[in-house]
Amino acid sequence: MKSIKKKEIYLNILKWIFICVLIGFFSGCASAFFLVSLEWVTNYRELHYWIIWFLPLGGLAIGLLYHFYGTDVVKGNNLLLEEYENPKKTIPLKMAPMVLFGTLITHLFGGSAGREGTAVQMSGAIADQFKGLLKLNNSDRKTLHILGISAGFASIFGTPLAGALFALEVLYFSKISFKSITLSFITSYIAYFTVEFLQIKHTHYSIPSVPQLTIINFLWVIIAGVLFGLSAMLFSRTTHFWGRLFSKTIPYPPLRPFVGGIILAITIYLVGTTKYIGLGIPTIVASFSTTNQWYDFLLKIVLTSFTLGAGFKGGEVTPLFFVGAALGSFLSIYIPLPIALLAGMGFVAVFSGATHTPIACTVMGMELFGLESGLFIGIACIVAYYSAGSVGIYKSQIVKGTKYKLYQRFKRTNLEDL
């Protein structure tokens, strides 16, 4: 009997390692193709500025595609979160090519969006197919969702540790099993190394000097963290606002990105620069050495929230990096900390506040910028996490833990005072 049980255990371990390898490999390949395609459309747009005037037609194409063929996957990342919490049916594999096409169209014609959402949705859709193929139960399906999210995040940003932790944290840590934690890290690294093997390069950042964490510097980090958290709150609430506004005022979904595209194209023309559209990587990189204007992060918030709220496709995370880095760079005028350190703190702290994932963001900061800045980044991420409020970029995310209890107590106190 014992030998039979051991054999079953070994077979189960081999099965999950096999699943991890396949999800990691296919997700890594999908992200690699996406990164190459995204670079191509971005370069083409920058060399052909006039193409921005076709943004309304691109939006209409995305709207029609999802209206006729993708109503069951239009929720994107929120669908992954909902299916994790309340499993109903397997996520259609068509989510992957549809979000890939929609995101590339958005970036080609000048929308302001990111890439994390696309990578996570592609990987999540790929991972969920194994439920039917291997006849897994709903408990194992939750593990598949974790593996898909970790693989997509790790491969698109080149941060395997943060990718694994992000998947665990965004899905509410206390419900995660030890098996899921182990498999998440395995899948994350396989996806990461797949992209590395295909020689796809990620953007590199550096923080040349990190001061000592004195009491004065600690207080400055707290102040900066609060500002990063408030900007995350502004980003999340503005995105939801535009989404509600378009839904109420334009009943026919395909027309929402069409109308939004018209407004965006005119706005971009009036602004007179492509600095605030697309991913904004050049501005993010420059923020580590050059002071930004006070309005740079605000314009990115407005254009990205409007783009996504109107129904264009793409992620929110890279724009959040832009917002944080640009704000941190500007704050270096008033806060006596190195500009690169403030930009790096903002880079991950705004992301932390908008996604309720301070642990993953702290680790991501150390992966990207080095261990030396870890203490500053960790404090900024935690402060931003608490300062950003209870509303994040993902509507379907379950927010629990001390932050949730704090806001529940705050609400009860306010109601009692009324």
Description:
With 418 residues, the chain is mainly α. The protein folds into two domains: 2-197, Orthogonal Bundle (Clc chloride channel); 215-402, Clc chloride channel, CATH 1.10.3080.10. Helix content is 72%, strand content 0%. The chain contains 17 helices and no strands. The chain starts with a helix and ends with a helix. The model has no long low-confidence stretch (mean pLDDT 90).
Number of domains: 2
- Poorly predicted tracts of residues: none
Total beta strand runs: 0
CATH architecture of the largest domain: Orthogonal Bundle
Report strand %. Answer: under 5%
What are the main properties of this structure?
single chain, 418 residues, Clc chloride channel, globular
